Amino acid sequence: MFADYILLLFAPTPRRAKGIFNVLRGRRTVSTLFAGLTYGCLDQLDSWHGVPLETFLATTTKLVTAGDLTSPEAGYYQLTAQGMVHQRALKKERYQPVASVTFQTVAVRRFAALSQLALQVVSEAAHHENRYYPVTTDPGVQATVKAWFRRYRGPELAPTIFAALKAFLTTLPDELARIFVQSLTGYQFPGQTDAQLAAQFNREPVELLVIRRDLTCRWIVWLQHHPQDPLWALLAPLVKASPVSDSAQQTLQEFLRGGDLAAIAQRRKLKLSTVREHLLEVAILTPEFPFDQLLSPALITQLTTVFADQPDLTSWRFDQVQRVAPQLDFFYFRLFQIMRCQHD
Amino acid sequence: MTNDELYRLLRAKYGFTSFRPGQLEVISKLLNGQDVLAVLPTGTGKSLIYQLVGSVVSGLVVVVSPLISLMQDQVARLNYQGEKRVAALTSQLAFGVRQHLLNHLTSIKYLFVSPEMLSQPAVLTALTTVPLALFVVDEAHCISTWGPDFRPDYQSLGQLRTTLGQPRTLMLTATATQHVRHDIVTQLGVPGAQQVLYSVNRPNIYLAVATLSDEAAKRARLQQLVTGVRGPAIVYFSSKRQTDLTADWLREQTGLRVAAYHAGLSAEDRFKIQQQFMAGDLDVICATSAFGMGINKADIRMVIHYHLPTTLADYVQEIGRAGRDGEPSLAMILYVAGDENLVRNLNELTAASPNEIALDFDRFTHKREPASEVSQVLQYYWQHGADVATVSQLFEKRARAKERELQALMAYVTSSTCRRAVMLTYFDETAPQHDERCCQLDGAPLPLAALGLTRSATPTVTTDTDWVKALSRLFLLNS
Fold it and tell me: Do the beta carbons of residue A315 and residue A305 sit within 8 Å?
C-alpha cells in the first residue's frame, strides 16, 4: 500500500506533513529543501511527483486512524509506539529504493518514457517488424525517439542494446532483473503491468511502482558510467551537472570569487533575500558548501551555546537566538542549522 | 473519382478487395462534396472512411473524438497502419509539444481533438490557417446523449464548424434513433446532410439476459459463464473498484488469465492490457465502458454486463465489440431486481434541481470557481449567457429523457418476448423473424452447443523465469 511508504517518512518526533509532501512532489523552495534535509528524505525529492495533496493527506489521516501516527498539533504528525514497530517491519518487508537521488539531477520520468519507446522500436526493428502499436502516442516522445533511431539504426544496434542491458541487469538481484525484462514492451511481447508483476512476485502493487522507478534510476546511474551506450544519447540531454538551480549556481560562483552579498545582489539585479535563498539552496544540496566563509568562529560558538541542550535541531527556534543576538539575520541561523545537519 | 479507382486505392493502401457495408457509399458522397451522417454498425471500419478520403483530398482531416484514451488508440492504430502524419491534441500534451504541433499543422494529415480542446482560441486560430480536407465528428451520438448536461462543449461544435469555414463534414455513429439523428444534424448546422443508415442489428450476436436473485447468484453466474462459454470475453462494470475486485476474484476462482481495465490505470498499463488482449494473452477483461471504443479485435466471443449499461444505445455499442469476425457470439446482461437504481444514481450525478441551478448562477455572478462536476457543466451555460429558467428547463427535459432511456433499456431487460425485436423497434427498425439463434426467451436454456460457444480446454499459463532468454527473444533475431 501507498500508506506503507508514507509511514516510512515519519519519525518519533513531529514532522510537518506538508513539508514532506512538497519534498516528494519536487518543490524546490528553500523551506521544502530544508524540511527534506532535516527529515532525512532529501534523497526522495521529486520521486512521487504525481501524487495529489489530497491523497497524501488522506493517507496520513488513515495512518492516524490505524494507530500508527498521532498528530500533536495541526499539520504535524509523529510515530506512535505501534507505528515505530510497524515502521521497523516495513523497512525489512517493503522494497527500499536505493537510487532515488537520481531525481535531483535527471529528468527520470522523461527518460522512462523515451527509453520505453526506444527499446520497443529497437526490438521490433530487430525482427524486421514495422507494423506495431507504439507504446506511446505522445508526439514529443515519438519525435525524439525517431531522431535517435535514425542516427543509431543498423544491424549492430539491437545486439549492442541486448549486450548492454544484459551487463546492467547482471549487476542486479535476479528478481529485479526479471521485473525489468518482463515490464518491457517489444516484439510479440506487450509487457506485464505492475499489478500482474506484483501478483507474480508476491509483492504489493505499489512496491512494483517503487521498484520499477528505482530500476529506471539504477539504469540511469549505470548509463552515466557507460557513455558509449547508444541509449546515453537519449539520456544525456536530460542530465544536469548539479541539483542546484542555474540561478543559484551563478550566485554561488560570484560568492566563491569573494563577493560581498549586497554587491552580488546589486550586480545580479536581485534582492538581497534572493541571494541569501540561493546560498541556502546550495548549502542544503551540497554538503561541501564553504560554511566558514559566512559563519565566523565567534558566531558558531555563540549559536552552539544557545542550543547546547537541544540535540534535535528541528526543535530550534529563531526567537531563542534573537534573545541573545537581536541584530542577527534569520539567514545565519538557518545556515548554522544546515551546517549542523550536514556535518553532525 | 470512379468506383474502380476507389477499389484500386483500397487494395493498394489497405490490402482489402472489398468494402464493408456502407463504406463505399459514404466515401463517394463525401468525395462528391456532400456532408454525410453515417450510421454504420460497430465493426464496419468507420475510420477507413476518413482515412481513405484523407488520402485523396488535400488538406488536414480533423477528427473530433470524445475520449483521450480513444484518441490515443486511434493514433496508435494509424501508426500501426504505417501512417506517421497523425497526432492527438490532448490536454495531456506538454505546452511546448502542443505549440509545436499547432505551428506545424501542415506537416500532419490526421488530427484528433476533443471538442473542449477545439474550442480553445489558439487551437481554432491555428486550424483556420490550414486547408481542411474533412471535419469528422466521431461517436456523433455524443452530441445528443452526452450533450445537454454532460459534455456541453459538444453543443458548440456547430459554431466551431462555422468558424472553420464550414468544411465538408462526416458525422459517424453506430447507433442513432431518428430523434438523435435529428439532434446531430441540427446541432451541427447541416440539416441537408446525406444520411447513410445501416441497421444496428448484429445477427451473429445472440442476446441474453439472466435474471438473478441477488449479488451472490450474479457472481456465481458470472463464474459459470466465463468458465463455460468460449472466450475471449469482456465483462463490463459501472465502477472502477468493482472492476478490480471482480478481476482478482475471477482470477483466483478460475485460474483464467483475467485483467482489469479502467480509466484509473496508467497509460502504460492500459496499453499493455489492450495489447495482451489483442494478442490473445488474456481470457477475460473486466472493464468499465472506457474499454473497447478503440479496440479492434475480431474474435471476441462474449460480452457480459455485470452492471446495466446506461442506455440501449450504449448497450448496442458495447456488445458490438463481440463477433466482428461474423462468428456466433454471446451478449449477456446479469440482472438483479433494483439494478436500475444504480443507473438512476449515475444519472443523478449529472442532474440539478432548479434551486441548485439558481444557487450555482449566484456562485457564477460572485465570480467563484465551480466546485463540482455539475457546477462545471453549468459554468458553460452561464459563460454562454443562458438564464436560470432556460437552463432549469433544459435540465428537467434532460432528466426526463434519461428516465425514458432507462425505461427503454428496462423494456429490453425484462422482455418476455423477442429481445431483438424490442431493441430494433427502439431504433425504428423492423426485426427479423425470431429463431433459436436470435435471443434467449424467458426460461429457455442458452443454446451454447448449437452456437458453437461451449468452452474447450483452458490454456495453461507459463511465465519465463529466465530473464536472459526473454531479453534475447526481444532483441536478437532467431533466438
Answer: no
Report whether the peptide linkage leading into residue B232 is cis, meaning its omega lies within 30 degrees of zero.
yes
Please, what's the largest Cα pairwise distance for chain A?
76
Check B467 against A180: CB less than 8 A apart: yes
CB atoms A158 and B470 under 8 Å: no
User: Is pLDDT above 80 for B294?
Assistant: no
Residues 6+ apart with CB under 8 A from B167: B62, B132, B133, B134, B135, B161
Q: B193 or A311, which is more confident?
A: B193
**Structure confidence at residue B289 as a pLDDT band (50, 70, 90):** confident
Chain A: residue nearest B96 by CA?
Answer: A140
> Taking CB atoms and an 8 Å cut-off, how many pairs form between chains A and B?
113
Contact A320, A283 (CB under 8 A): no
ipTM of the complex: 0.86
A121 → chain B, closest CA residue: B475
Asked whether A204 and A4 are in contact (CB, 8 A), the reply is: yes
Angle between the N-to-C axes of helices B240-254 and B215-228, in degrees from 0 to 180, rounded to the nearest 10 = 60
Question: Which of A109, A137, A209, A219 is best to mutate for the B interface (most B CBs within 10 A)?
Answer: A137
Pick from A138, A140, A190: CB nearest B272: A190
| B interface residues, A as partner, C-beta within 8 Å | 72, 75-77, 79-82, 87-88, 92-94, 96-97, 100-101, 251, 259-260, 265-269, 271-273, 275-276, 279, 281, 463, 465, 467-468, 470-477
A239 phi, psi to nearest 5 deg:
-105, 130
Rounded to the nearest angstrom, the gap between the alpha carbon of residue A211 and the centroid of all alpha carbons in its chain is: 14
| Minimum Cα–Cα distance from A172: chain B residue | B467
How large is the greatest C-alpha to C-alpha distance in chain B, in angstroms?
71
| Interface probe, candidates B467, B472, B473, chain A, greatest A C-beta count within 10 A | B467
User: Starting from the edge strand earliest in sequence, which strands make up the sheet with B284-287, in order?
Assistant: B205-212, B329-336, B302-305, B233-236, B284-287, B258-261
Distance CA B1, CA B297 (A): 32
CA dist list (Å): B40 to A15, A241, B15, B176: 61, 57, 21, 10
pLDDT tens digits for range B269-281: 989 999 999 989 9
The domains found in chain B, sorted by start residue, are 3-197 (3.40.50.300), 205-232+297-341+407-451 (no CATH)
**Alpha helix ranges (H) inside B153-266:** 157-163, 178-187, 215-228, 240-254
Query: Would the CB atoms of B82 and A131 count as touching at under 8 Å?
Result: yes
Residue B421: DSSP 8-state: H
Nearest to B475 among A135, A158, A191 (CB): A158
Q: Residue A141's closest chain B neighbor by CA?
A: B97
Which whole-number Å values give the CA distances from B463 to A179, B105, B278, B369, B476, in the listed order?
Answer: 12, 45, 18, 51, 19
- Beta sheet of A69-70, edge-to-edge order: A15-16, A76-79, A69-70
Is a pLDDT exceeding 90 seen at residue B178? no
Domains and CATH numbers, chain A: 2-94 (1.10.10.10), 108-238 (no CATH), 246-343 (no CATH)
- Chain A interface test: which of B474, B478, B479 (most A C-beta within 10 Å): B474
For chain A, list residues with pLDDT below 50. none
B452: left (phi over 0), alpha (psi -120 to 50) or beta: left
State how far Cα A299 lies from the chain centre: 33
CA distance A177 to A166: 9
Report helix, strand or coil for B350: coil
How many Cα neighbours within 13 Å face the side chain of A259? 20
Size (chain A), residues: 344
